[in-house]
Amino acid sequence: MNKKFSIEIDKQIFSVSSSVAPDDELAKYRASVSLDAKEIADSKSTVVLSVHWKFRDGLLNKVAGILELQAIIRNSGAHNVASEGALKEEIQRYMAYELSDISNAGPLSIDTVDINQRRWLKYAVPKLAMTEYSTALSDNRYLTVQFALVDDADQPEWKGKARALIEELVKSLNIDLASNSRA
To answer: Fewest CB within a 10 Å sphere: which of 33, 75, 102, 117?
Structure first.
C-alpha cells in the first residue's frame, strides 16, 4: 500500500510518500497552510505533518521502536534564508539553541543533497537518533523534515528496517509549484 501526504504551502506542494502505511491513524496533518498565516508568522516552528511507524518484534509482537517523521515550517525571523549559505547559518543557530541543554551532542555537520531536483541541507544529531533535511520556502521560512528513531527495546534489529524506510521517504521528498503538480 502506497501512502502519500501532500501539503499545499502557498503556491508550492510538499509531498512525501511511503510503500508502508504509517501505524498512527491519528496523524497530525494539514492539507494546506499559508506562510503568512498568523500562526506561522508568530511561531518559531509549526508542525504541519507528524506520522509514526511502529516496528514490532518477538513472540509477543511487542513494539521494539518507532520511526517518527515530522514536517516543520520554521520561521527565521529577520534572518534571510533564501540562499544555501544563509540557510546553513540559520540551521546552525537554531540547532545550537535547541541542543544547548544536551551535553555531548557533538558538532553539527551539515551536508548538501539534491532530492528530486531540489537542494536540501542534511544534518544529524546521533545522540538523539535524529536526522533532518531542510530547504528554503521563502526569504524567512524554511521546511524541515525530521526523522527520529525512538527505541523501546534492547533489540536494535528494527533500526535496519526503519533506516530502509527513511531512505525510501527521503527519496520521495518533493516540493513543486502547485500548478505543476496538478498538471
So the answer is: 117
For residue 144, what pLDDT is reported?
A: 97
Q: Cell for 42?
A: 508568530
What's the CA gap between 164 and 67, in Å, rounded? 11
Provide the grid cell at 81. Answer: 534564508
Q: What is the DSSP letter of 107?
A: P
Q: Give the mean model confidence (pLDDT) for residues 93-99.
A: 85
Element housing 71 (H / E): strand 62-75
User: Is the CB of residue 127 less than 8 Å from the CB of residue 106?
Assistant: yes
According to DSSP, the residues that pair with 106 across neighbouring strands are: none
- DSSP H or E run through 131: strand 130-136
Q: How far apart are CA 144 and CA 95, in angstroms?
A: 12
d(Cα 70, Cα 172) in Å, to the nearest integer?
A: 14
**Torsion over CA: 123, 126, 127, 133 (sign):** positive
CA distances to 7, 48, 56, 73, 181 from 177, in Å:
12, 18, 38, 17, 6
Q: Report helix, strand or coil for 159.
A: helix
Query: What average pLDDT does the segment 53-74 reach?
Result: 89
